[in-house]
Amino acid sequence: MSLWGGRFSEPSDADLRRLNDSIGFDRALYAEDIAGSIAYAQALVSAGVLTPDEANTIIAGLEQALAEFDNDTFALMPGDEDIHTAVERRLIELVGAVGGKLHTGRSRNDQVATDFRLWSLRAAERLLDDLRQLQSALVEMAERHIDTVMPGYTHMQPAQPITVAHWLLSFFWMLERDIDRLANARERTAVCPLGAGALAGSPLAIDRQALAESLGFDRPSENSLDAVSDRDFVADLLYACALCSTHLSRLAEDILIYSNPAFGFISLDDRYSTGSSLMPQKRNADPMELMRGKAGRLIGNLTGFLAALKGLPSGYNKDLQEDKEALFDSLDTLARLLPVMSASIGSLKINPENMAAALTEDLLATDLADYLARKGLPFRQAHHAVGAVVRRAGELSLALSALPLSELQAINPLFSDDVAAVYDFAQSVAQRRAYGGTAPEAVREQLARARQLLAG
Ligand code: ARG
After folding, report:
1. Which of 190, 266, 286, 358 has its CA 20 to 30 A from that of 3?
2. How many angstroms separate the Cα of 232 from the Cα of each of 174, 195, 306?
């Protein structure tokens, strides 16, 4: 039996029900729906709508329904269009007509918004745990490679030497911002719509402050009309998920490139690599390609939902039901991606020899310019002079360090014997010790700050 059959003379069409019903996915909200109902029953006692006895009967029925969901014995009926209908139907079966008093002053509009906010708060908590795990994996691997030098890239072209720890930690900070965004989204989610009714507010003396607190919310919503149609929290969370998966995708892309045999900087553990059905030699990084591919899907969940929101008139509209599958999907997807990324990082094999082999002297061209600048040459002129050095080395097919001093001095007389000291990759990174730089000394401080954040 539906919750709204009174004004209709015919039952709704089966195809309409297949389109309209949300029980297939909003069943996931059962615990929150029942928690919201128990709190609401108590609020109805304070408002003088239910006697304490009636409330106890209703709460016992709700607890029974909860147990049935928990142990998978809750039997759904054909008329159970959504989780709210299913719970109320079962409640009335269990406790009789008094169960029908629970919905006094309440609408599924404030009910579903409350349920989904409660669910989202818990889901965000689980996501935070997964994010911290990945941060820990990055920190642990970074700690082992504070002194390992690799080429750093801009425009995907060799740029300057960096340390492996510095590369790995760059993703720690992206994830830290993801965590921050999530914490921010949680604040806006922790607002309780219950008591807003369908749109206009409650005619009952509901203490909404107490009701919000009893459910663990920070505060009640300010405007009943806004409360039932506000899904900003869903968009916030979808954005936090989309950006987080964008970060995973970028890390995955680095791993794909650096593990390609042409680079050979890193190798993914066998457990996180895949093979080819045809080419026996292949070692693919499918999980990383999935990180990249799923990011597209999560961005789609965000933009799809924003598109669903943008044209809605005031008040609740059924379009809002689209919120759930989008967020369920984004969170489920991240819950599958993050543990694989953490384990892939944790078991990553770093190949320092291959990195060292890729450290060509052109990566030190900036250091050469810095050398001239230290001797007093304005950096712009130093940059130009080193450009000429690089060109001359190319003409003579020589490495920079093999260029005779006379050639260097012909370009700029400030070059002298001590230039030999520039051709040292460890020295190059060691110099970049200002706050946030790649020098092992600075990275140790960076690691300490990362560790502090992990410790909470
Ligand atoms: N299944 C609905 C949703 O997810 C519940 C609210 C239905 N409200 C209504 N007035 N039809 O949004």
Report:
1. 190
2. 23, 19, 9
